[in-house]
Write a structure and sequence with these properties.
The complex is a heterodimer. By secondary structure, chain A is mainly beta. In chain A, 4% of the residues lie in helices and 43% in strands. In chain A, strand 9 and strand 10 form a beta hairpin. Chain A is elongated and about 165 Å long. In chain B, a hairpin with a 3-residue loop joins strand 14 and strand 15. The model of chain B has no long low-confidence stretch (mean pLDDT 85). Classes of the chains: A mainly beta, B alpha+beta.
Chain lengths: 884, 326
């Protein structure tokens, strides 16, 4: 080691020593070197320590105040007097940095411009300038490195004692804003007021704090923590949603009997309800009220299940014996064998076309299928001059030879099973050669029409006698156990439509006995059972004649002309089948049924025969969840759909839109798990709710009491409720007596076993009514917040309301909705409602919940010493420093 | 125990014209500076390696290299190594049982500095004028906490006492540990470990700065009404804290929660508070926004838009904030 070159060698003095200037310089250098090493090693000294602030760019340069910095080797760089530095010459074209660097010999450091991109040197950057005219500008984005003191601000933390925090009420102008507590911080020795941060907590896991924390009266030795709860602490309404089962089908318009008493109170609005489920299992057998499911169902704490049925479908295994329908007409000569006949006149839609099997001189014409809407006195026509259909559009038909077709003519299809397609009327003719016909109903223009012929029906005779009495028909099928007496079945056509229905009179293990023949039914045809979900109560039987039975209904629009209806008994079995040939809307209105239904009485229930559609899933959009199905037009909003033979998931149709490629895009309330392209999706019939015995997970379910669950039906857990029809039917309870409830209004279509509950509320109606479990201290004008999910969309809708009226006896509260949220129909059981707790103090609450405070206090940072700027008014303070 | 290492009182040297200077005066001046420096180091810093002193030695090496460095011992004395040195690994085969022996490589201040330059006096003999404070290196064998092999017990009393003293010196910071070594057959049995070093630099801690906008800085608020309520915003300047990167900010608004606004010419009192959110944090500022939920605002006083328009002028709130960097 070459020790003689050491910078750090200490000098030693002794008497008689010959001293040279170098000795002292070496000593100074050694001390300076040790200082540098120390600054660099144990202090993070690099950067500006004092002053050195840069003034505005003015004139030809920048002013820099005096100060001190340390370079990266730990050497102090001192600028003892303020200086003005000229901008670099020639004018810069790229950013430049002003560096403070060690001076050459002089005690003071030097200011020097260097390229900003590669400053080099061993100094500290003070400022940066950007090129500009007439002079460069200061780069405000540049921030010089400033030395930080080793000392950190004083920081202290603490907490008050849970359960022993002295909360008091926080009031201003006699309004309780919340609670507050003063926290003593005197033991932490702050000499100035620190910056306080605090939070309030509770040990109670189930307590959700709803407050804003703020700090007031901050002092060096204390502060006040405030919890702002004004208008924040709310009380939750517990909303009642009583439900009861109808003990019998009502026999009067204003009274129902329930299986239990006390469910409803005077003032309740009542409605029929159907349960909702998202997952269901098929019952492979139902015997002695024990249903065996395909998988286990957890029935812990479950009292009721949803039941319903997927489409009941069976295949005809042998050709049934044909059975004929005959009419007698005034001019039999106009009819020839194999001619297609149809009803004409304004009610043409009520009967389906048929083919002539035989004609005799007495005027008796035997037809291939029943024309059940045909009435004595009707005009019967023969289809003439057919034309080939070359194309169909939305409600339009294009003909090859349109010359014999006129506007308002009635047209029928003359090929295939002519009774499969109801007749239609031409409402418009267009096209270059009048080949484009617009037809009503538009459903006539079905794709299967292409390649077949249609013809105009010209009236040729008047019907004198209708002979429907062709007797029962026995049909051998492969799944007769799915059906029972009182069902209605129809042939499923190749394009997914349904032919004329027939009533099932009885069943055997291999066959169905039908009330009447089904046209052209043959081996391998498919029969589908109808469901009776759309129902109406007969208010009065207005007239009964051979021309039909006229009944008064609240909503005859539920039963369109041409549809088939049945009268239902208490067991959901149809007792008679008829078609609707006319309706008169109004409140109430009427419907004319044909053939006449004998024995029909007021308060019997009519049901619409709805045949459930089955569609094929073509694709599923993973992003939007839209399901594309074929054929188009089979599903409608509100339908409950599922593919229960393969997946347990069930959803409701929210929205449908037909595509140009003959399919329909369907939006569902929720995705059906594992549904894939190629699956068959069916409309499900939700029958209602059935009482069951609670049990651990099992695939055996014990059903309670009378019920309509049969083999092949599905069972699922109840997720919610809805009203069965889009047309509300609401009754207002006006008195109760035991299990009886007298009401004003109508529970349209109610049958024994139906579930009755509180009607849905519609927020867009302005006022809603809720029944509460317990009535809180309320007064009119109290503000409440309500929210609930829309059953179809799943979206939560929220709105505010003010208390309008209170029925203390029945705990009913009427609320005036503020800011109408648009159509918002919510089920009472789905609503979450809170009311502002305007009266009373939250003090009790925070004391009960052991609310305590935790806090942190931190001293403010000291401003960096800027000696030159602070004393800028005096002549030249830094010059004085230099002189010392 | 005296405050300084020398035990002498700390004396300032004074000079005057015409003064007769003795060697002792200059020597005292030098010693005064040294004593003050050591006092500073001892009182404001902790013993350990401050910079440098990198050591290198891998398994199988019999020589280790120490790079230049700066350390402070427990008396505040600087231990400066100006040039790299190479040191021989202790020539030890094993602990007598065939196991490796553990040593700490320590460095200490050399109190009896070697003369690096001597000079003839005017009338006196030749003497040293410069003293070289080269540090002293030492391999300190670790004293096992238990002695199952009996190797410590077998040591002579003198040797044992010396070993214990050395270990105590290391623990007290009189000697600064640079590395720990495992020696077998006169060679390193493992690479040197520096995990046992003591560091003279304070442990790096987050940089914390806190302040508030009360006093002369009036807090400028803007208010925007939306469906959820009214959002109040203000930008807080934190450049005075000299953050070098974006710190984590914590902030709250302090002020009277009862706010009187003028709306439609009439004075209305609102009771307000809200959800604090910190946005757009930079090293020199952040934006504090406070969402006042609409449930707090009685809609009979005015629309949210009208209240939002009147609020900024009425608010006397200021911001208390803290930033933690690193």
């Amino acid at each position: 080691m070459n020790t003689s070159s050491s910078l750090l060698a200490r000098i030693r003095y002794w008497e008689g020593q010959l001293l040279s200037a170098q000795d002292f310089q070496r000593q100074i250098r050694a001390v300076a070197e040790l200082g540098r090493q120390h600054n660099r090693a144990v202090h993070s000294a690099y950067g500006i320590a004092i002053g050195l602030s840069v003034g505005e760019a003015e004139g030809a340069g920048l002013s820099v105040s005096c100060g001190m910095a340390y370079d990266c080797s730990g050497s102090p760089l001192i600028l003892s007097v303020a200086q003005t530095v000229s901008f670099p010459q020639p004018a810069i074209t790229a950013p430049a940095t002003l560096m403070l660097e060690r001076g050459k010999g002089a005690p003071d450091a030097e200011l020097r411009w260097r390229s900003a991109s590669s400053p080099g040197g061993n100094g500290v950057a003070i400022a940066r300038i950007l090129p500009g005219t007439p002079m460069p500008s200061i780069d405000t984005a540049f921030r010089p490195i400033v030395t930080r003191p080793l000392a950190r601000p004083r920081i202290a933390t603490g907490a008050t004692v849970s359960g022993d925090t002295a909360w008091s009420e926080w009031t201003e102008d006699n309004i309780t804003l919340g609670v507050q507590t003063t926290v003593d911080t005197s033991t932490y020795g702050f000499t100035t007021t620190p910056n306080y941060f605090a939070q309030a907590f509770t040990d109670q896991a189930d307590f959700l704090p709803a407050w804003f924390v703020s700090i007031a009266d901050a002092k060096p030795d204390s502060f006040t923590l405030r919890l702002f709860t004004y208008r924040m602490i709310r009380e939750r309404f517990d909303i009642l949603d009583p439900k009861a089962t109808l003990a019998s089908t009502p026999t009067a318009s204003s009274r129902i009997s329930l299986t239990a008493s006390g469910a409803f109170a005077v003032g309740d609005f009542l409605s029929r309800l159907l349960p909702i489920t998202s997952e269901a299992l098929i019952a492979t057998s139902v015997k002695n009220n024990i249903a065996t499911l395909t998988d286990k169902l957890d029935l812990t704490d479950v009292q009721q299940l949803v039941y319903g049925s997927p489409p009941r479908i069976t295949t005809v295994v042998s050709d049934p014996k044909a059975s004929n329908f005959a009419v007698t007409v005034d001019t039999p000569a106009a009819f020839a064998q194999d001619a297609v006949v149809a009803k004409t006149g304004s009610t043409f839609a009520s009967a389906r076309p048929a083919k002539v099997l035989s004609v005799d001189d007495s005027g008796l014409i035997e037809l291939s299928s029943p024309m059940s809407g045909l009435v004595v006195g009707d005009q019967l026509g023969v289809a003439q001059n057919p034309s080939l259909v070359t194309a169909v559009g939305a409600g339009t038909v294009t003909l090859q030879n349109p010359s014999n077709f006129q506007r308002n003519d009635i047209v029928v299809c003359v090929d295939g099973n002519v009774s499969d397609l109801p007749p239609a009327q031409i409402t418009n003719i267009a096209g270059d050669s009048d080949e484009l016909l617009t037809v009503s109903p538009a459903s006539f223009a079905t794709l299967s029409l292409i390649g077949t012929r249609i013809a105009v029906v010209q009236p040729v005779a008047t019907v004198k006698v209708v002979d429907t009495g062709t007797g029962e028909l026995t049909v051998q099928v492969d799944a007769s156990k799915l059906f029972r007496a009182g069902d209605v079945v129809a042939r499923t056509t190749s394009d997914g439509r349904f032919g004329e229905p027939a009533l099932v009179r009885s069943t055997t293990s291999k066959s169905l006995v039908l009330s009447q023949a089904i046209a052209a039914l043959q081996k391998d045809d498919i029969l589908t059972g109808a469901n009776f979900q759309t129902r109406g109560t007969i208010l009065r039987v207005l007239s009964a004649s051979p021309y039909g039975t006229v009944v008064q209904l609240q909503h005859p629009e539920l039963f369109p002309v041409g549809s088939y209806v049945v009268a239902l008994d208490d067991t959901y079995a149809a007792t008679s089948l008829a078609s609707v040939i006319a309706i008169a809307t109004g409140a109430p209105g009427s419907a004319t049924l044909y053939p006449p239904v004998a024995g029909l009485q007021a308060y019997q229930v009519l049901a619409l025969c709805s045949f459930p559609a089955t569609v094929a899933v073509r694709s599923i959009d993973a992003a939007t969840g839209l399901v594309e199905v074929t054929p188009a037009g089979s599903l409608k909003t509100g339908d409950t759909v599922g593919a229960l033979q393969t997946h347990p998931g069930i959803a409701m149709v929210v929205q449908t839109s037909d595509t140009a490629t003959g399919s329909t895009l369907v939006k569902l309330t929720m995705p059906i798990p594992s549904l894939t392209a190629g699956d068959m999706l069916s409309v499900l019939n939700v029958g209602g709710a059935v009482a069951v015995t609670s049990a651990a997970p099992s695939n055996k379910v014990t059903l309670i009491g009378d019920n309509h669950v049969r083999t092949g039906d599905f069972l699922g857990l109840i997720n919610g409720w809805r009203e069965p029809s889009s047309i509300p039917s609401v009754a207002l309870a006006i008195s109760t007596s035991g299990t009886d409830v007298n009401f004003f209004g109508l529970l349209d279509g109610a049958i024994k076993g139906d579930i009755i509950g509180l009607a849905s509320v519609d927020a867009s109606a302005g006022t809603i009514q809720l029944r509460l479990k317990t009535l809180p201290k309320l007064s009119p004008g109290n503000e409440a917040l309500l929210s609930g999910p829309n059953i179809l969309t799943g979206e939560t809708q929220a709105f505010s309301a003010r208390v309008q009226y209170i029925e203390a006896d029945s705990s009913i509260v009427g609320l005036a909705v503020e800011g109408a949220p648009g159509p918002t129909t919510l089920r009472p059981e789905d609503i979450t409602a809170t009311i502002l707790l305007l009266n009373g103090s939250p003090l009790m609450l925070v004391q009960q919940q052991n609310v305590y405070a935790t806090w942190l206090a931190c001293e403010s940072f000291d401003p960096r010493p800027i000696p030159c700027e602070e004393t800028a008014s005096s002549a030249d303070p830094c010059a004085a420093t230099t002189a010392m | 125990m005296p405050l300084t290492a020398s035990g002498k009182p700390i004396e300032h040297i004074q000079f005057f014209n015409g003064q007769r200077l003795f060697a002792e005066d200059l020597q005292d001046l030098e010693e005064f500076n040294r004593a003050m420096r050591w006092l500073h180091n001892q009182s404001l810093h902790q013993p350990g390696v401050a910079s440098g002193y990198a050591v290198s030695g891998n398994k199988g090496d019999s020589i280790v290299t120490v790079q230049p460095g700066y350390a402070i011992d427990s008396q505040g004395r600087e231990i400066v190594l100006e040039q790299a040195v190479q040191l021989q690994v202790p020539p030890v085969a094993n602990d007598g049982q065939g196991n490796a022996v553990y040593y700490d490589l320590v460095v200490s201040y050399t109190a009896d500095a070697a003369a690096s330059e001597t000079r003839d006096g005017v009338c006196t003999t030749r003497q040293a004028v410069r003293l070289q404070d080269a540090p002293t290196f030492c391999w300190v064998e670790l004293v096992p906490t238990s002695d199952p092999s009996g190797s410590v017990a077998a040591l002579s009393a003198d040797r044992k006492a010396k070993l214990v003293q050395l270990n105590q010196d290391v623990e007290a910071g009189n000697r600064i540990r640079l590395a720990r070594s495992e020696v077998l057959n006169c060679k390193l049995n493992q690479a040197l470990s520096i995990a046992e070093r003591r560091n003279a630099r304070p442990t790096l801690q987050p940089y914390i700065a806190a302040a508030n906008t009360s006093g002369s800085n009036t807090t400028k608020w803007t208010a925007v009404a939306a469906d959820l309520g009214i959002t109040l915003s203000t930008t807080v300047d934190t450049s005075g804290a000299n953050f070098r990167s974006v710190p984590q900010y914590e902030a709250n608004a302090v002020g009277d929660r009862s706010v009187t606004i003028t709306i439609g010419g009439a004075s209305k009192t609102l009771l307000l508070d809200g959800f604090v959110r910190i946005g757009q944090p930079t090293a020199t500022s952040f934006q504090l926004s406070l969402l006042i939920p609409s449930i707090l605002i009685d809609n009979r006083i005015g629309t949210l838009t009208a209240i939002a328009a009147a609020l900024p002028a009425a608010l006397q709130w200021y911001i208390v904030w803290m930033g933690v960097e690193g």
